[in-house]
Design goal:
alpha/beta; Rossmann fold; six-stranded mixed beta sheet; four-stranded antiparallel beta sheet; 36% helix; binds adenosine-5'-triphosphate; binds magnesium ion
Length: 291
């Protein structure tokens, strides 16, 4: 990291700290409910967790999609989540990102930010980036323009969207282009990229916002073997700098990237451990791998 980037980071942090608290209701009622005040831009991971879920439950018309889900993720960890169709993996991500409100339970980002008090847009601002399965890039725009757009809407820039990127933003964009292997496609229209390249571009658009936690739902579905392998290397390069939660059905991919694997079944954790450990677990074989 260059000194310029460090300075920019400090400047942004100050800006964010001055900004009003996300999640505050018009009446101020929600903010008044805060026990410990978490400042935006800061995630307290001194307790060794960036994400903490405890006994989370949600029902849809009486169907318990999430049923006593508890798990936590360490800062910088790359956690893989597997489980049969309907296990609740996507619903879990919906809950973390504020798209779905659980009926009960605890969801914390770091040890001070109670995510259930925040709206979806504010959760993204806090530093949780989400990648849905289908690529959602702007097809008519170039690779560069897509990344530029995501940079301009990044936190800290806010209402004062500059007409042109500043030096630090250009540096960030260049860095992201290399990370996602699209440096030779800068001016290519996104619509003409391969499926895998579109997925990387969308990941790049998340990376420009420097998320602390990235949630990725079936990122390699539909990719070629080569694209899948490149994605594995990409994720391995991101861990440490970011925390990642990756949901995938592709076991070869999981084998390449995984340390700790969590198996979800019927809305809760069935098993956790290395891939070899969970694959040897009788309950896992029964409900999932044996099918
Ligand atoms: N908004 C909703 N309304 C009603 N039912 C829902 C809703 N969202 C999810 N479900 C149900 O909750 C269960 C869990 O779905 P979810 O999409 O989380 O599973 P998943 O583990 O992501 O599965 P897959 O591997 O197929 O993507 C499913 O039975 C699904 O039909
Ligand atoms: Mg799903």
């Amino acid at each position: 990291m260059t000194p310029d980037l460090l300075e920019e980071g400090l400047r942004r942090r100050e800006q964010v700290q001055k900004a009003p608290m996300p999640g505050r209701t018009e009446s101020g009622g929600r903010a008044a409910g805060f026990g410990r005040i978490a400042r935006a831009g800061e995630v307290d991971t001194t307790h060794g967790r960036i994400l903490y879920l405890d006994d989370v439950r949600v029902s849809f018309d009486g169907f318990k999609a999430i049923n006593g889900l508890s798990l936590d993720i360490a800062p910088g960890e790359l956690r893989c989540i597997i489980g049969p169709n309907g296990a609740g993996k996507t619903t879990m991500m919906d809950i973390i990102t504020g798209k779905t409100r659980p009926d009960s339970g605890t969801v914390f980002f770091g040890s001070t930010i109670d995510l259930l008090r925040y709206r979806e847009a504010d959760i993204a601002q806090l530093g949780i980036g989400r990648k849905f399965q289908k690529p959602t890039v702007f097809e008519a725009l170039s690779v560069f323009e897509n990344l530029e757009l995501s940079l301009k809407t990044a936190k800290g820039v806010g209402a004062a969207v500059a007409a042109r990127l500043n030096g630090e933003q250009r540096n960030r964009l260049a860095e992201v282009l290399v990370t996602i292997h699209l440096q030779d496609h800068v001016n290519q229209t996104a619509g003409t990229l391969s499926h895998g390249q579109k997925q990387w571009l969308e990941i790049g658009m998340l990376l420009t916002q420097e998320p602390k936690l990235l949630l990725l739902d079936e990122p390699v579905a539909g990719m070629t073997d080569e694209e899948t392998e490149r994605t594995a290397q990409l994720f391995l390069s991101l861990k440490g700098k970011h925390s990642l939660m990756v949901v995938e059905h592709d076991m070869n991919f999981i084998r390449t990237i995984s340390e700790k694997v969590t198996v979800l079944h019927e809305g809760r954790v069935l098993a956790e451990g290395t891939l070899a450990q969970v694959q040897a677990d009788e309950r896992v074989i029964e409900v999932y791998l044996g099918r």
